[in-house]
């Protein structure tokens, strides 16, 4: 399923954010039904507000009628807000065909933004107060200049899987992965980039961390300035992983920023809020 809608003279900011709250309230229901959604909130076409886009809402192993029945209450809520969407719901006979038809090409690691992420647990989407608190934190970041890419997801349960592994335990409770990006102009100065990066970490993401205590971040799309990254990226596994690192690689031969044991090293020539690896790596 795909559709989009945007703020306009007839769709106010209040109504738009109410629609986001309506969507968030269905997160547990949707993932428990086995769906996955990939969506974003970005500036609208004339840059006077924001637009919401599904690309796509994915119902693996669901028939078209089953998916239509599942999303009907959500679409009804949008209708009650005065948001009339015409969802494109298509059924495919293979995963590959569905992927080709719905997932857009992506650019990763581009030069004009600084990204961060948060794994929000089910608790953030259970009950009106929790949903509204989460929406308020998201709205603050987006109205402050960020853009949001969201995934409504849930880790699959597997009775045969070994739970004692290096996977961040936060994934077990996650029902959404939010990526937030701060954007700068092509001619932005280093000072401007540093300022946006600082706001990202100390304001926008600070609010997200505050309302999701004990949760984490997906390290492959996370903030390089993430505070307490050991906990955010590895959770309760980190002490054991650090112990193994010291045992198996006491020389620190294998280094990566915010990787296990990297706190024992530093790169010379750092600029505040704009970390670089273009310097001499030294043991602290």
Poorly predicted runs are none
Distance between the termini: 52 Å
Task: Count up the helices.
Answer: 8
In this structure, how is the largest beta sheet organized? 6 strands, antiparallel
Count the E strands.
8
Q: Helix- and strand-based class?
A: alpha+beta
CATH class of the largest domain: Alpha Beta
Mean pLDDT: 93
The percent of residues in helical segments reads 25-40%
Element order, helices and strands?
A: EHHEEHHEHEEHHHEE
Shape: globular
Please state how the strands of the largest beta sheet are arranged side by side.
1-3-2-5-6-4
Tell me the number of structural domains. Answer: 2
Spatial extent as radius of gyration: 20 Å
CATH domain fold name of the largest domain: Vanillyl-alcohol Oxidase, Chain A, domain 3
CATH architecture annotation name of the largest domain? 3-Layer(aba) Sandwich
Strand content: 15-25%
Structure at a glance:
The protein is globular, with a radius of gyration of 20 Å. It has helices at residues 13-25, 27-32, 64-80, 95-102, 128-143, 190-211, 229-234, 238-248; strands at residues 4-6, 35-43, 50-59, 113-121, 146-152, 174-183, 265-267, 281-283. The longest helix has 22 residues, at 190-211.
């Amino acid at each position: 399923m795909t559709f989009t809608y945007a703020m306009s003279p007839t769709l106010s900011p209040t109504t738009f954010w109410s629609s986001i709250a309506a969507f968030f309230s269905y997160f547990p229901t949707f993932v428990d039904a086995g769906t996955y959604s990939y969506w974003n909130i970005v500036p609208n076409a004339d840059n006077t507000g924001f637009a919401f886009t599904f690309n796509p809402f994915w119902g693996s192993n669901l028939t078209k009628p089953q998916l239509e029945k599942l999303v009907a209450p959500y679409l009804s809520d949008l209708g009650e807000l005065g948001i009339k969407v015409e969802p494109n719901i298509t059924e495919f006979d293979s995963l590959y065909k569905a992927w080709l038809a719905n997932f857009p090409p992506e650019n990763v690691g581009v030069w004009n933004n600084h990204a961060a992420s948060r794994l929000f647990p089910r608790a953030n989407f259970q009950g009106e107060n929790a949903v509204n608190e989460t929406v308020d934190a998201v709205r603050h970041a987006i109205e402050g200049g960020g853009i949001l890419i969201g995934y409504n997801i849930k880790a699959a349960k597997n009775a045969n899987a070994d739970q004692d592994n290096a996977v961040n335990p936060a994934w077990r409770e996650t029902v959404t992965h939010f990526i937030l990006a701060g954007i700068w102009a092509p001619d932005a100065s280093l000072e401007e980039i540093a300022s946006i990066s600082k706001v990202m970490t100390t304001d926008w993401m600070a609010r997200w961390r505050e309302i999701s205590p004990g949760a984490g971040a997906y390290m492959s799309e996370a903030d390089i300035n993430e505070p307490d990254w050991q906990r955010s990226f590895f959770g309760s596994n980190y002490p054991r992983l650090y112990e193994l690192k010291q045992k198996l690689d006491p020389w620190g031969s294998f280094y990566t920023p915010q990787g296990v044991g990297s706190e024992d090293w530093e790169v010379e020539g750092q600029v505040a809020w704009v970390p670089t690896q273009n310097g001499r790596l030294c043991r602290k």
